Amino acid sequence: xxxxxxxxxxxxxxxxxxxxxxxxxxxAGCTLLPGFIDAHVHLGLVRPARVLAGGITTARDLGWERxxxxxxxxxxxxxxxxxxxxxxxxxxxxSPRGYxxxxxxxxxxxxxxxxxxxxxxxxxxxxAGWGAAVIKVAQEPRAGPTLPPxxxxxxxEASHGLGLRVTSHCGALAELVRALDAGVDELAHGLWSDxxxxxxxxxxxxxxxxxxxxxxxxxxxxxxxxxLRRFLAGGGRVVYGTDMGNAGxxxxxxxxxxxxxxxxxxxxxxxxxxxxSGAAAYLGLExxxxxxxxxxxxxxxxxxxxxxxxxxxxxxRLVLRDGHDPSGGHQAGV
Length: 334
Description:
Blueprint: E1 2-3, E2 6-7, E3 30-34, E4 36-41, H1 48-53, E5 56-61, H2 66-78, E6 85-88, E7 92-94, E8 111-113, H3 117-130, E9 135-139, H4 149-161, E10 166-170, H5 173-182, E11 186-191, H6 199-208, E12 211-212, H7 222-233, E13 237-238, H8 255-263, H9 268-274, H10 277-283, E14 299-303, E15 318-320, E16 324-325, E17 330-331
Helix pairs in contact: 3-4, 4-5
């Protein structure tokens, strides 16, 4: 049962009292799951309403021009039926002419260039004041210069001082080592290259508590899958994210991404948790990621059993965000 944006009761048929006038959805043969959380999207490249209808009730944008993404964040906070709840990094911190300052996929202003440790600290403070949910750095040597170690270290130190994590687009093994040395918290793609991560580096990642958001669907190369397999085998933590807006992932839950996580060694259950309860815990989304009395009514109903066939997640029958049904734009009692 859902009321006032919360789950009020959960139980088998006949055990939950349904108030007169409540909307009743026949869920025979269906599975009810928490709303999915995508920790790596670029929402400016997709329609937010379609993303929500596809089962994503919370999305974290990892790189966009701040005025536009801030306006979208405010609009989605005001209208739960218009799209997913939005967390945002704003622009990526990078070196002058570094990635993505010349990238065609994002608007001008999606890169914030810093030239020194002092500029880096000031930029982090500026983004934190704007409401950034995370600080993203670009370490992509194939598309321009990367942040020197002292500047990267200043970004991490300033971010941690303000209670923010740092995530990195890391395009080379040498940059991954720099990220570890600096204390970067997360890899926004895993290692975004086909280099094999040496076991000693992998062990450092796990020991440091570095989190990986794999985005395998956009590049399911054997090397990337093997890197993730060894990271998981060593006890590494994975959070679901797709790089939605990039070629491949749909605007909604991506069964292919989940299947690749399973291919890399996760069980179906742990892969689903990485997109629901695990992602909610990592991102500090209290009361979300669970189907339980008192939890927020972020819910997805699918026909069939995703534990038996992940493909059923591609076509949600019903999606609620804070109890609001985007197909009808109203709050629903279920």
